[in-house]
Amino acid sequence: MKQLVTILFVLLAGSAFSHKFYISIADMEYDTIHNRINVSLKVTAHDFELVLQRKFERSIDLEAVSDSSEVNVYIKQYLKHNFKIYSQDIPLEMTYLGREVNERDELYFYFYFTDVTDPTTISIINKLLFSVSDQQQNIVHYKYLDRTKSVTLVASKSEDSITFQ
């Protein structure tokens, strides 16, 4: 009986450290002055560290990764490959600005897309973290002028469009 209680305790304690929701939130806003779309992307830091761990086959602490490291180069490549915006079917160029991790294990990436042909209609591809969980949901909010529209992307539908009339 004592063994059964110990096993149950270990299983319950382990589940307390995992999370039930796999969500990223991208807040995008069109910048009329610079003709670009600014993006702030929030993900769970340990989920993103799992992506890096699988790539580099070692444990990686994002707070210890320097801007000039091989890991940081991969982070930029991963974002460019998995988060894309199109304007009139033309892929926009991403410029990566940086990242930060807060005390609540939230990882923020900052970047922007330039040369927006038509900011009223954009297509978004967001495949971030689908390799970590098939339950991953990537929510994208796009603010154009004074209006905001949102889409939720999942593994079975990783692309959608937003249009303002």
Topology:
Blueprint: H1 2-17, E1 23-31, E2 36-44, H2 45-56, H3 70-82, E3 83-87, E4 90-91, E5 93-101, E6 106-114, E7 121-126, E8 137-144, E9 147-154, E10 159-163
Parallel strand pairs: 1-8
Antiparallel strand pairs: 1-2, 2-6, 3-4, 3-7, 5-6, 7-10, 8-9
Principal-axes geometry comes out as globular
Q: What is the arithmetic mean of pLDDT? A: 89
Distance between the termini: 66 Å
SSE string? HEEHHEEEEEEEE
Low-confidence stretches: 4-17
The secondary-structure class comes to: alpha+beta
So how many helices?
Answer: 3
Major β-sheet, in short? 6 strands, mixed
Number of domain units? 1
What does this structure look like?
By secondary structure, this protein is α+β, with helices and mostly antiparallel strands. It has one domain (22-163). 25% of the residues lie in helices and 42% in strands. The chain contains three helices and ten strands; from the N terminus they run αββααββββββββ. Strands 5-6-2-1-8-9 form a six-stranded mixed β-sheet. The chain has a four-stranded antiparallel β-sheet with strand order 4-3-7-10. A hairpin with a 2-residue loop joins strand 8 (137-144) and strand 9 (147-154). It starts with a helix and ends with a strand.
